[in-house]
Write a structure and sequence with these properties.
This protein is 37% helix and 18% strand. The protein is built from 23 helices and 27 strands. The strands form 6 sheets. The chain has a 7-stranded mixed β-sheet. It has a 7-stranded mixed β-sheet with strand order 20-19-21-22-23-26-27, with helices on both faces. α3 packs antiparallel against α7 (152-164) and α12 crosses α21 (654-666).
Length: 744
């Protein structure tokens, strides 16, 4: 029978009423058995159990998202949480009854798993702070993830790759008892998916309780994570668990779990006593300082040590003779934008018979490629160079060189630059795979007592009596008697002090020109070329600053200038009111600063940049680190530089070109200090390659003493027995930023 047209709307309306009543009855029945708040808390049904589950969730939610502020350290994703990740009550009901297929994060199961793992670890007495130690043998493997920072999508791709490589199965179970997965901490924050990432790591821990090792980073330490977007995610997605006053709030539960994580992992290789490997989120100096039993370490993100674009793994030098590597795994919108990092990356460590025979394998996938695939790159973990394959070259001749530098404290910026240049030259040498060098550089913090302690440790613990490029005048002066007594050989110290320019100190070779030559050159240029007559000298009243000021006084007298203003200060002084008053009263045209850059910065800040308008600041090369030059440039202060190496930016010498190329490959900044360190490393590498074994300090001394008009990659080197140096000129950078070879 045909229904009249005028009845159709009524029948259709009636049909919709029946459908509405059906769902209303269904929902009402559901509400009969459960309280409303319980439903909202527990209704999510999606499970994180397998790689397929993780992949489905990752495919549903956006990997590319808008960041609502311009802060890479603490990005804001509030709108993403509210509009995409947070689901309405009705939406959850529709998912629960199967009408919608949206994968909704299951907070209830996450909390249950979090409590389970925490309880198990607490029962095993895993209470922070502690370090975990395991013993591995040849052919065992470690899979290492650097900072993940909530990059859930990237982590899922890495897990899929691990399944392809038969490291894990679809259920996230590690397939071999001889394989470990290590998470270096900082797994949350900076990307939106902190809870999802943490849930994934908990699943891996649950299924591999002995072979998944999650280490603590700074975001897992002392509730630090609560300052970032993980807290916002909890507050928006699961507000019922975000009340800090409630007994079972999620903040306390996560903190309790983080408090069961180890700070570092120490690997001992079976049958080897002095062959340890360390994993941690950041440097743990106390684990290897003055022990000589750790060979290399892998740490998390060190973005500010590496300026170049990275694919995940970087060799960042040595500390106390320990080779350091940094791995980053968090390819995300944040790291794409701020650091140009586009790789999914994890690291494999293949254990050898000893740490020296281990191999590092970077697995990385560059998302910008047309068809991204994982590629493997092999590295020697001790010497930092790439390997062609897993067949590692076994070195025959390894030379250890010691040093003590002020890598912390008031002269750290300058020492860091020198160390970077030195290690860049050593890496270049080691790439040749002959006469390999490992530097053992200890930090003295610019303390003479610490420097002497370091020297004793080099002699007694590391069995080294050869010291390369130590920094600082008062530090070297404190152990100079050991050099004079023949216990120590020192090459190319980063100081121009006259006390080290003595023909009787047979065990010391200088490269750079002296502070005396620098000061004479500068005073001559200022008085004769610029016509300056009124001077003031702000100097450190010790073995470094006082002799330089005395040379300046003599040069002024030669120029028939009889008066000047002296402003001596203590090395650790931080208040300069009386000094600045005296300086302002004298109204000098030029101010010589013979101090450290940090103290000089405080002095300048107290004066204010306006005081330097129409005045010139100058000093010796020791003062001018790149950070100090930037400090002056930012304040518009004019200054005259002296240089003891060729212009690293514009020189056409062979060694300058080599330096710029290698420093670029490492992603480091070009600077005069780095160039000086590079020259020192290049010279010592050259000497070691040409001296007949066995290598001794006496042979290296003799090698440099025999130099006369020796062309070393464009540098002309002639040993001067009176000053124990290689006769290098002093350069001046003028106010118009040109370097000139000015002879006083």
């Amino acid at each position: 029978m045909k229904i009249p047209k005028n009845l159709k709307p009524k029948l259709l309306t009636k049909k919709y009423i029946y459908i509405f009543l059906f769902f209303f009855t269904l929902i009402s029945s559901y509400l009969t058995f459960f309280k409303l708040e319980t439903i909202n808390n527990n209704i999510s049904t999606y499970k994180f159990e397998t790689i397929n589950d993780l992949q489905k969730y990752a495919n549903f939610y956006p990997e590319n998202y808008n960041v609502e502020n311009n802060d890479w350290a603490n990005p804001n994703f509030t709108n993403l949480y509210k509009k995409t990740l947070k689901h309405s009550f009705i939406n959850k009901i529709l998912v629960k009854i199967g009408i919608k297929k949206t994968p909704i994060f299951n907070t209830k199961k996450f909390v249950i798993l979090l409590d389970k793992i925490s309880e198990e670890r607490i029962n095993k007495q895993f209470i922070s702070p502690f370090n975990k130690t395991i013993e591995l043998k040849k052919n065992d493997k470690c899979i290492i993830f650097g900072d993940l920072h909530a990059s859930f999508h990237s982590l899922v791709r890495d897990l899929i790759e691990l399944e392809k490589q038969k490291i894990i199965d679809k259920n996230l179970k590690i397939l071999s008892n001889n394989t470990y997965i290590i998470i270096l901490g900082d797994a949350i924050n900076r990307a939106p998916y902190s809870l999802e990432t943490l849930n994934t790591l908990l699943l891996l821990m649950n299924k591999n309780p002995d072979n998944l090792i999650y280490l603590k980073g700074n975001h897992e330490t002392n509730k630090y994570w609560q300052n970032f977007n993980t807290k916002r995610q909890i507050q928006i997605i699961t507000p019922e668990l975000a009340d800090a006053k409630q007994k079972d709030n999620l903040f306390d539960k996560i903190d309790a779990f983080f408090n069961t994580l180890a700070d570092a992992l120490i690997i001992n290789i079976k049958g080897e006593k002095n062959s340890k490997i360390i994993f941690s989120n950041s440097e743990k100096n106390k684990l290897f300082e003055n022990k000589n039993d750790v060979k290399f370490m892998v740490i998390g993100e060190k973005r500010f040590d590496v300026l170049k674009e990275t694919h995940g793994l970087e060799f960042i030098g040595y500390e106390c003779g320990v080779a350091k590597w940094s791995i980053i795994s968090c390819q995300s919108a944040i790291y794409n934008k701020f650091f140009k990092f586009y790789s999914d990356a994890f690291l494999e460590l293949l254990i050898g018979e000893s740490a020296n025979n281990c191999i590092l394998i970077l697995n990385s996938r560059n998302a910008r490629e047309e068809k991204p695939i994982y590629k493997q790159t092999y590295y020697d973990p001790i010497f930092g160079y790439k390997l062609e394959n897993k067949l590692k070259f076994t070195p025959k001749n390894i030379t250890y060189i010691g040093s003590t530098m002020s890598l912390s404290g008031i002269t750290a910026p300058m020492s860091d630059e020198i160390k970077n240049g030195l290690e860049t030259a050593i890496l270049l040498n080691n790439k040749k795979k002959q006469n390999l060098i490992i530097p053992v550089i200890l930090d003295d913090g610019y303390s003479p007592k610490n420097a002497k302690k370091n020297i004793n440790n080099l002699l007694n613990i590391y069995n080294l009596n050869t010291v390369l490029s130590p920094t600082g005048t008062p530090t070297l002066a404190f152990y100079l008697n050991m050099v004079k007594d023949g216990k120590l050989f020192v090459f190319f110290p980063n100081t121009g002090a006259e006390i080290f320019r003595n023909k009787e100190i047979k065990n010391l070779i200088n490269f750079r020109a002296s502070y005396t030559d620098e000061t004479k050159t500068t005073i001559s240029y200022l008085t004769k070329v610029l016509g300056i007559k009124n001077f003031a000298f702000f100097y450190q009243n010790d073995a470094y600053g006082k002799p330089i000021s005395e040379v300046a006084h003599k040069e002024l007298k030669k120029a028939n200038i009889k008066t000047w203003t002296d402003l001596p200060h203590l090395k650790t002084q931080s208040e300069f009111r009386l000094i600045t008053e005296k300086l302002k009263a004298s109204m000098p045209e030029a101010i010589g600063c013979f101090s450290t850059n940090s103290v000089t910065q405080e002095f300048i800040e107290e004066l204010g940049p306006d005081f330097f308008s129409g005045r010139i600041l100058f000093g010796v090369s020791f003062l001018f680190s790149e950070s100090f030059k930037k400090f002056l440039d930012d304040r518009g202060i004019k200054y005259i530089l002296t240089g003891v190496v060729p212009d690293p930016d514009n020189s056409e010498l062979e060694i300058t070109k080599e330096f710029k190329h290698e420093i670029f490959l490492k992603g480091l900044k070009i600077s005069s200090n780095a160039f000086e360190g590079f020259i020192a490393g290049s010279l010592i590498s050259d000497a070691i390659s040409k001296i007949q074994l066995p290598l001794t300090g006496e042979k290296i001394i003799k090698y440099f003493e025999n130099m006369k008009n020796h062309n070393f990659k464009g540098l002309n080197l002639t040993f001067n027995p009176e000053t124990r140096d290689l006769s290098q000129p002093v350069l001046i950078r003028t106010l118009d930023l040109k370097w000139i070879n000015y002879k006083y």
